[in-house]
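Thread amino acids onto this structure.
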């Protein structure tokens, strides 16, 4: 138990008990935070003009660098984009599904050096996921913009377009772009009644 002392050196056990109770409650609250985030998070496709605060931006940078990687390869790289003209160009990376970038205040391109790991898709996906969840925990909205496997045109992939636009060196693969900002309107999470528990199997399919 944490023991606190007042200015005259007497043991303030009552304060210590309150502090310990507070820490216990906080610990219990933290246990439920992830499930609460998953229950309430939705993809946001339209954002307001409100800017993202510096503190929030710094947290997003820290979190994405803490994302686990296969064999600790750390092959992923991240490009934070907040220039409006560049965001508009990226919104053209594919015919459908990139519109959230038009109003996003921030976009994070998630890419990896595929020569460093065969698990670059998995590592990039994990990094993008923790970014989505962290953004939601900060009161921000986000949307996954799939890049890998998409086409900019009949002659160019979305990956090639993004690499050209962001001056990404050869050897890097782009999995996705995370669009982030403040949601124009709130969305409720998927109801519990819509969860398909038939997809869960025990000890075999």
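Threaded sequence (205 positions):
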């Amino acid at each position: 138990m944490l023991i606190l002392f007042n200015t005259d050196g007497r043991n303030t056990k009552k304060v210590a008990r309150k502090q310990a109770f507070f820490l216990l409650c906080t610990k219990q609250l933290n246990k439920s935070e992830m499930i609460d985030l998953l229950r309430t998070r939705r993809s946001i496709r339209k954002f307001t003009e409100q800017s993202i605060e510096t503190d929030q931006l710094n947290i997003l940078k820290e979190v994405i660098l803490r994302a686990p990687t296969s064999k600790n390869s750390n092959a992923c790289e991240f490009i934070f984009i907040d220039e409006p003209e560049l965001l508009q160009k990226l919104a053209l990376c594919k015919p459908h599904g990139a519109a959230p970038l038009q109003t996003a205040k921030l976009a994070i391109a998630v890419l990896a050096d595929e020569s460093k790991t065969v698990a670059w898709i998995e590592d990039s996906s994990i990094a993008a996921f923790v970014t989505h969840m962290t953004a939601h925990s900060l009161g921000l909205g986000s949307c996954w913009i799939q890049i890998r496997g998409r086409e900019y045109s009949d002659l160019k992939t979305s990956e090639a377009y993004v690499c050209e636009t962001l001056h990404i060196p050869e050897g890097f693969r782009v999995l996705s772009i995370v669009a982030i900002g403040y949601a124009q309107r709130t969305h409720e999470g998927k109801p519990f009644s819509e969860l398909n528990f038939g997809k869960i199997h025990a000890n075999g399919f």
